Q: What sequence folds into this?
């Protein structure tokens, strides 16, 4: 078991015309989980990812969640390695994931 902290970041997402939301570590994990793997999807991979996604979307920013080792391993293996943005919180998130290994 690993405790995964949903720390808030300064990275934002435009939710609507009037609302901007700060992303948390769970949001960054969800980005990786939702990316299409090289070679496409297989059914078991979809099942595993949807199960974890369903668990993560319920976690509020500032809240911790307990993850099974296999769930953390899935987050770690799907964490984005090359980002389209440059931000200090991306580095902090990557360092955090590496600290939990």
A:
């Amino acid at each position: 078991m690993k405790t995964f902290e949903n720390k808030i970041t300064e990275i934002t997402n435009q939710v609507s015309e009037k609302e901007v939301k700060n992303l948390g570590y769970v949001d960054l994990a969800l980005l990786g989980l939702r990316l299409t793997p090289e070679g496409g999807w297989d059914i078991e991979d979809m099942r595993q990812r949807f199960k974890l996604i369903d668990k993560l979307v319920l976690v509020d920013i500032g809240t911790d969640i307990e993850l099974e080792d296999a769930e953390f391993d899935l987050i770690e293996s799907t964490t984005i390695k090359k980002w389209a943005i440059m931000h200090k919180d991306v580095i902090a998130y990557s360092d955090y994931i590496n600290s939990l290994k």
Observations:
- DSSP finds four helices and four strands in the chain.
- The radius of gyration is 14 Å.
- Residues 33 and 49 are 6 Å apart (CA to CA).
